Amino acid sequence: QVQLVESGGGLVQAGASLRLSCAASGRTFSTYAMGWFRQAPGKEREFVAGISWSSLSTNYADSVKGRFTISRDNALNTGYLQMNSLKPEDTAVYYCAADRSRSYAMSYASRNPPDYDYWGQGTQVTVSS
């Protein structure tokens, strides 16, 4: 069993940066693909970024490519999402998730929320204009 806890959200102005963290319990987290998703009020949960267990494969939503960077430190059982040049449209609750079906996989992380087995409780990111 894996438990995920996000932190690092907050209220910032447009153009600012934030770094989200996802702390995981359970030794198997390091072998799973990991993703970051977000959900704005009235909208569906959407893929933001994904990373393979080895960090060799990363993928991003077009809306954040070039501004956000996903990473992980398996020794610390922690994932990260560095968010730069934030825009008001980035406002949402951000969730990290782990996909055990891609354990030790070299492929890109899935963009599909139902493919993920474990989810954190979310952290709010609000970007003011």
Estimate the global geometry from the Cα principal axes.
Answer: globular
What pattern of helices and strands is seen along the backbone? EEEEEEEEEEE
Rg, rounded, reads 13 Å
By DSSP (H or I, 4+ residues per run), the number of helices equals 0
Sheet bearing the most strands, described? 7 strands, mixed
Strand content: over 45%
Give unreliable regions as ranges.
none
**Overall mean pLDDT score?**
95
Structural class: mainly beta
State the end-to-end distance. Answer: 40 Å
Tell me roughly what share of residues is in helical segments.
under 10%
Number of strand elements: 11
Task: Please give a structural write-up.
The protein has 129 residues and is mainly beta. 0% of the residues lie in helices and 47% in strands. The chain has no helices and eleven strands. The protein has strands at 3-7, 10-13, 18-25, 33-39, 46-51, 58-60, 68-73, 78-83, 92-99, 118-119, 123-128. Strands 2, 4, 5, 6, 9, 10 and 11 form a seven-stranded mixed β-sheet that branches. Strands 1-3-8-7 form a four-stranded antiparallel β-sheet, with no helix packed on it.
Architecture blueprint of SSEs:
Layout: E1 3-7, E2 10-13, E3 18-25, E4 33-39, E5 46-51, E6 58-60, E7 68-73, E8 78-83, E9 92-99, E10 118-119, E11 123-128
